[in-house]
Amino acid sequence: MQWRYDISGIDTVTLHFGQRIDAALVTPIHRAAIALKSSLGPRLLDAVPSYTTLLLRYDVLQDDLASLMGQVSEVLNQLPDAIGEVDAESEIIEVPVFYHPSVGPDLKRLAQRSGFSVEEFIRRHSERLYQVFAIGFAPGFAYLGEVAEELSVPRLANPRAKVPAGTLGIADTQTALYPIVSPGGWNLIGRTPLVLFDQSRAQPSLLEAGQTVRFRPIAQDEYLELGGRLDDLPWGVEPGLDIQQGAPAKKQGEKL
Amino acid sequence: MTHSKPGLLIEKPGFLSLIQDAGRRGVMHLGLATGGAMDRHAWAWANYLLGNCFGAAALEITFGQVEFVSQLNASIAITGAKVTVTVNGASQPLWATLSLKAGDRVTLGAPRAGLRSYLAVAGGFSVAAGLGNSCATLYREKTGGLHRDGQPLKAGDLLPCEPQSQNPPLQRQVPVDWIPDYREALILDVIIGAQIERFPSRSLECFFTQPYTLSPQSDRMGARLNGPALEVFGERLISEGISLGAVQVPANGLPIILLNDRQTIGGYPKLGAVTPRSLDALAQRQPGSQLQFRPVALYEAQRREKAFLNFFNKTL
């Protein structure tokens, strides 16, 4: 495995695995993080994967840079040169999504912009597998890539002040779910009923870097059955959308 | 958490009072900030005076002006910013153990020097550790702290304490010579990072020779600086993990020092990282304070950090 490192602080080094955003780097960085965590144990205070890098934080009382990097080299040099291959063993995490203008106020505009019907836009967004490139911005906020080129769209010029938890968005070539209520500049297309971040869980974040995600389109009744909310939408509801009543779900493929 | 346990009852919470400890470990990959006491020096002394272990939770009080009533006999210590402390109206020393009886009323005034006070209690506060085995309060994330919702203390909050042991801590005081003067000119040590190559030499010369001032827009996430703008070559970077103290330079050229509550990844070019010991001193500077920077070797910075940790890791 090809890598280099540089010093980022008194107790941190950054390992570099590539020069540009590339889906082929996700698995090797993920594997490196797992191998280093298991080999170094509590000597490693944090391992933060991102698009092309892995930041390591160590304990200066236990390790100096030379001893740390000696061990890091030993571990990484034993890892296979698996660049370019998606981890076949990695489990696919299925995330149900209610793709609908009530919870995704930019859905219609994005569909029109790309020249697809809303149904076709949803099909194209949900048909591919996404990888978690990085976690950041907020607890459990996962940057997933990459969306089909024809669905790619720049982020909003004016971010919204409030995006509800679970909302699914697109910005540039990436797609992401907002784990907690926060401001946000992504184009919003739907919402999952899953709780993405819960600090009382043993694993607080549903998603972690390196994982593979599939979005499964669901109708409104399933969204509500799974605990999805419609009573906290800051952008209001379009006239004609009977969402409070839990109207009979439209089947996928029916006109929204 | 049980409220039957007595503790310190907050009547005036001040501008910003947060439960803080040594910060979180092992959760940055989930997008969670590390948090923790901003001035570890004053925080560690408050615990040390009481014989608490190094990592014990204490109260971090920004801008003073706090009032509380103790519901139990307890020993406390208040360190950090120069504030007036009274117990039932009588003035008390800082950087020293204070004995409280049940019903005693304690007040902290506004700082005359420094910014943050640390209040520890013998035995520590009974706040359960949460994410990253820490009770650090993260306001932006709404995680951690007394109620695990990231909220600062408010009037009516009860900080539960362990009951006083049979042997109360000895009366102790930090020697006057060891108490920092937070009005002294501050020179921050910086470990140079690899992205320094993105800064033209005239910008680097500027950074290491010209004074900067601390902007009032600073918070626990970052210290914003006013002063000469720096030029950066090239575009934004691909987002990568951010170290404590990283000096990032956004498009306007004004450096931001990233602190305990920083985001975990980001894409602005970084000159290097201010050392934790320098960040301790920075945490006590008021907005408008003048700062300068000097490069330091990694080995030297680690030597000083180890000396600091080893001193406070010993129990008295």
Description:
The complex is a heterodimer of chains A (256) and B (316). Chain A has 256 residues and is of the alpha+beta class. Chain A has two domains: 4-78, Gyrase A, domain 2 (2-Layer Sandwich), CATH 3.30.1360; 92-226, Cyclophilin-like (Cyclophilin, Beta Barrel), CATH 2.40.100.10. Helices cover 20% and strands 27% of the residues of chain A. Chain A has five helices and 13 strands. In chain A, helix 1 (26-40) crosses helix 2 (65-77). Residues 243-256 of chain A have low confidence and may be disordered. Chain B folds into two domains: 7-178, no CATH class; 186-313, Cyclophilin, CATH 2.40.100.10. In chain B, 13% of the residues lie in helices and 29% in strands. Chain B has a seven-stranded mixed barrel. In chain B, strands 7-6-9-4-1-11 form a six-stranded antiparallel sheet, with no helix packed on it. Chain B has a five-stranded antiparallel sheet with strand order 2-3-10-5-8. In chain B, strand 6 (85-87) and strand 7 (90-92) form a beta hairpin. At the A-B interface, strand 1, strand 3 and strand 4 of A face strand 15, strand 18, strand 19 and helix 4 of B. Chain A: Keywords: ATP-binding, Hydrolase, Kinase, Nucleotide-binding, Transferase.
